[in-house]
Write a structure and sequence with these properties.
Chains A, B: GO terms for molecular function: S-adenosylmethionine-dependent methyltransferase activity. Two copies of one chain form a homodimer. Chain A has eight helices and eleven strands. By secondary structure, chain A is α/β, with parallel strands linked by helices. Chain A is globular and about 55 Å long. At the A-B interface, β7, α8 and β10 of A face β7, α8 and β10 of B.
C-alpha cells in the first residue's frame, strides 16, 4: 500500500511552510551540493520521480531540457507544481512511482529528491530506471541518510536540560518500515543500509559517479538547528551513470 | 607522528588473544564478505598495507600470487608474520605505510585490512596507491565504519541496568583524530566520513566496484555481543579498480 501523506491537509499545510517549500531550491540545505551532481540538461529528456512542487523540473527546463516529466503520488503537490510552472516542455503526472511504466531508453536523465525513502522496493525501481535510461544516461537522487533512518524516531537524544547529547543509531541491518515523525506527523519511511543503496546501483548496470553526504552550507549555519547538522549525516546524494554497451569493463 | 601501538607490550598481548589473532581469517566476522571482494590472485603482484600477522599475505600467496609484499609499522606483528609464513614469494617490510615508496605500476593488487583508520592523510595515500597500481589494478580494503568512528569513544550507550540502548553518532562532519578505546587501551584513530572514503577513490582515478558494510555471519550470532552488531555498522569494505587508459569514460 503506497502512502500518500502529502494529500493529508494537515501534513500538506505544514510542509508548505518549510523553508524549502517557500524559498524553493535555495531554501534546501543540500541544494548546492546536489546541483554540482546534476548533468548538463541541454536537449535532454528528464524524469523527476516524486517531483513535489516541481522545483527541480523547472530547474531542468530552465537549463535546457527539451522534455521534463514530473511525477508525484500527491494531487495537492502537483496542483502547486502546475501553478508554479507553465512551460510547455514540462508535464506533471499523478502516479505512485512504483506504478509508472515507460518504454525502454526514453529518458536521458532520471532524478529524484527525497522520495525513495517512501518506497518499499528500491531494487525493482532501480531496475526499471535502468531500463528507462539511455546508455550513458544519468541517475541522480537524494534520500534520507541510513544513519538518519536506522533507529526510526529520527530524533536526537537530549539530556535532562533539553540539550542534544548525540544521535542514536540502532537496528541498522534490519531494513524496512520505520514509523517516523516528520513535521510532528507520523509518516512511514523505509530504512535501507548504505550497502543497499550503493550495491543496488552497482549490481544493476550503473557506475557510481558520486556519493555525497551534504554538510550544511556555511552561510546557513545561523539558522535554528543548523549547527547541529554537523553532528550527524541526514541526507545522502548519489549520482550514477548507466553503463554503456561499449564499456562493459567499468562495472566488472 | 605515526603511532605504533602494536609494539606496546600490553596492547600487543591483548591483540594476540582476539579471535581474529588466534583463528586467523575465519575468526574475523567480516572475512566472508571481504573474501568475496578479493580479485583472482593468480600471477599477481600484491601489496598488503598494515599486514599485521600476515594472514592476508598468506591467503594471496596460497591463491596464486607470484609476489606478496606485506608491510607494517609494528616489529612485533611482523615477527609473528615471519614465523607463520615461510613462503618465498612473500616478503615483510617494517615501515609506516605513509613512508613507503615504490615505482609506478609495480603492483596489480593493493590490499589493506583495518589499518587506514590509523592514517591521518588518506588522500595522499590513495594517490600513491593509484600510482603503484597497474591500469585495471584492484584496490580492496576494510576500515572501521564512519558511524563507528564519528563520536570517538566507540562505546554503546547503556541504560542504568547495563543494557544497550543504542550507538551514539556525533561530530560526524568533523573529521580527524579520535581518542578511542580499543581492548581497554587508548588508541588514536582518524574519523572520516563515508563521502571522504568514496569520493577520494572516485576523484583519484578509481571506479568503485563494491561498498559493503559486513553483517555478522549467521553462524557467529551466538558469540558474545555478536547479535548487537546487527544494531550498528562497525566496518566498511571498499573495492575499486584503477581506471584503465582505454576506458576514461567510466569515471567522468
Amino acid at each position: 500500500m503506497k502512502e500518500n501523506r502529502y494529500d493529508d491537509d494537515v501534513f500538506f499545510d505544514k510542509y508548505s511552510r518549510m523553508s524549502r517549500s517557500v524559498q524553493g531550491l535555495s531554501g534546501a540545505g543540500e541544494w548546492r551540493e546536489l546541483e554540482k551532481l546534476l548533468p548538463d540538461f541541454r536537449g535532454k529528456r528528464v524524469l523527476d520521480l516524486g517531483c513535489g512542487y516541481g522545483w527541480h523540473c523547472i530547474y531542468a527546463a530552465e537549463h535546457g531540457a527539451r522534455l521534463v516529466e514530473g511525477t508525484d503520488i500527491s494531487h495537492k503537490m502537483l496542483a502547486v507544481a502546475a501553478e508554479k510552472c507553465r512551460m510547455e516542455q514540462v508535464h506533471f503526472i499523478q502516479c505512485a512511482m512504483e506504478d509508472l511504466e515507460y518504454e525502454p531508453e526514453c529518458f536521458d536523465v532520471v532524478f529524484s529528491s527525497l522520495a525513495f525513502h517512501y518506497v518499499a522496493d528500491f531494487g525493482s525501481l532501480v531496475e526499471k530506471i535502468g531500463r528507462w535510461l539511455t546508455p550513458g544516461g544519468k541517475f541522480v537522487f537524494s534520500v534520507e541518510h541510513p544513519v538518519f533512518t536506522a533507529e526510526g524516531s529520527q530524533e536526537w537524544i537530549y539530556d535532562k536540560d533539553g540539550k542534544i547529547l548525540y544521535f542514536p543509531v540502532d537496528h541498522y541491518y534490519y531494513e524496512g518500515k520505520r514509523d517516523a515523525v516528520f513535521l510532528g506527523e507520523h509518516v512511514v519511511k523505509y530504512h535501507r543500509t548504505m550497502t543497499t543503496y550503493v550495491q543496488t546501483l552497482l549490481t544493476r548496470g550503473f557506475v557510481l559517479d558520486a556519493l555525497v553526504e551534504p554538510q550544511p552550507p556555511e552561510d546557513m549555519m545561523d539558522l535554528p538547528g543548523m549547527k547541529d547538522e554537523m553532528r550527524r549525516p541526514m541526507m545522502l546524494l548519489l549520482a550514477a551513470t548507466k553503463t554503456s554497451a561499449g564499456c562493459g569493463d567499468c562495472n566488472s
